[in-house]
Amino acid sequence: MKVWSMSIVAGLGMAAPVAAPAAEPLKVAFVYLGPRSDGGWTQQHDLARLALEKAMGSAIKTTFVENVPETADSERVFRQLAADGNKLIFATSFGYMEPLQKVAKLFPDVKFEHVNGFKTAANISVYEPRFEEGFYLIGTIAGLMTKTNTLGFIGSFPIPSVMRNIDAMALGAQAVNPKVKVKPIWVNTWYDPGKERQAADTLIAQGADNVAQNTDSPASIQAAQEKGTYAFSIDADMSSFGKKAQLSGSTEDWSGYYIDETKKVLDGTWTGNRRVRWGLKEGLVVMAPLNPDIPPEVVKVFEERKAAIIAGTLNPFAGPIKDNTGKEMVPAGGKMSEATFSSLNWYVEGVEGTVPK
User: Fold this and answer.
1) What is the pTM of this model?
2) Per-residue confidence of the chain (357 residues) as pLDDT tens digits?
3) Are 76 and 278 in contact (CB under 8 A)?
4) Which of these, 256, 239, 240, 150, lies nearest to 203 by C-alpha position?
């Protein structure tokens, strides 16, 4: 229904209806660590941004800033986006946490969402995928497909979300093949194809015939394709870089979450001080298509365990769990506590080496 105000039309002495101005669209901003064409993490966020635009139409207007380092530069970017009138800002990398905290205090009327973080506020909510579900399933495939009983893992930084992935992969593999060992290499970057390729080559040379990654480029997929071994993608389906090599991968579809949160802002139901974790059940974690060369018996186990995770009958971090020194961390019949889960900084049994400081 239109809302009318009255004005006097000069010279006619009569009232004329004047339509109230249309509501301004909600301005929504995204801050990206890498290029939106990286083929992985950032690309998936940007595809979700485009899906958000399509779903919400003229009710919103989105913008993005790419290649923003996890330094003081990010604080400047967040401050400028807030000053420009963006009322919902998605910070899509863990290292933005402290800069975001500072800016959020300066703009209490702006709503901020931070991926994979753990600090919330009245105008900050945290969101993350249940990555560990996908990596448990990666481990299931790798444990059944390996001929050397040696798996590789390329790690970015030893933060809790990455530690959960390497541990979940090891647990999934050992559940189907107790002989499996996991060799990690840490590259201290999210996106550096050269370093990722070097790490993959090293792991393959050390006997790893299945390599998973927690980095953003397809370099490890390409290395496995050339060496005749297997690999797993993360964030996006990277099978085009190695159709024989990639067995599957743990990818994300962020669009459902972004649409849901934006609707909450528009209808006034958005709240801060939340930590939201979506996984396979909610459709945020999505497994990449299975390689057609995977034997049917392996596919069967994979599908059974995937269905059990979705149904809530399989918890990747259910006990018994020991760390790689033999110390019991989760007793039989128990589940990992939320405090331990959120701050995980140790390797499970079967992962070689020590966690970098």
Assistant:
1) 0.87
2) 333 333 334 444 444 555 545 579 999 999 999 999 888 899 999 999 999 999 999 999 999 999 999 998 999 999 999 999 999 999 999 999 999 999 999 999 999 999 988 899 999 999 999 999 999 999 999 999 999 999 999 999 999 999 999 999 999 999 999 999 999 999 999 989 999 999 999 999 999 999 999 998 999 999 999 999 999 999 999 999 999 999 999 999 999 999 999 999 999 999 999 999 999 999 999 999 999 999 999 999 999 999 999 999 999 999 999 999 999 999 999 999 888 998 999 999 999 999 998
3) no
4) 150
171: which residues sit within 8 A by CB, 6+ positions away? 136, 139, 316, 317, 321, 348
Task: Quote the DSSP letter at residue 75.
Answer: H
| Side chain identity, residue 185 | I
CB 254, CB 284: distance < 8 Å:
yes
CB-CB neighbours of 194 under 10 Å: 11
Cα–Cα dist 183/58, whole Å? 50
Of 93, 253, 231, nearest in space to 162 by CA: 93
The structure tokens listed for 97 are: 């946490």
